[in-house]
User: Fold this.
Amino acid sequence: MKTFLAKKETVQPKWYLIDAEGLVLGRLAVKAANIIRGRNKASYTPHVDTGDYVVIINAEKVVLTGKKEDQNEYMFFSGFVGGESYRSLKLMRERHPEFIIKHAVKGMLPKNRLAAKMLTKLRVFKGSAHTHEAQNPVKISV
Assistant:
């Protein structure tokens, strides 16, 4: 019996909707990363993008455990000498709550060019409204 390897042309991606309200960030990110990679399918192939699209709504209502809300910081670097800056998670939740989820999911994907394409399948929205109604995403629970 030969090993089945999925091909890029035969993959039919689906759309999933996840409501992040009250969910723990890490558990949400693991679920989203696995769907984006295609790990939830029997036809999963590591070197082929077999994943599905994920739409996450209510990004500002995601929960963190412990003291992470106060202690976590995101580091940014401008590329110039002394251009290192830090922003707290609390500040990022106020200004860009989508970044928190995207950053967590990106860290759970492999570090290669395929992961950069996979990350485009993640759509995160601040409120409960999103722009992908036409794709009829299937709502799943985490």
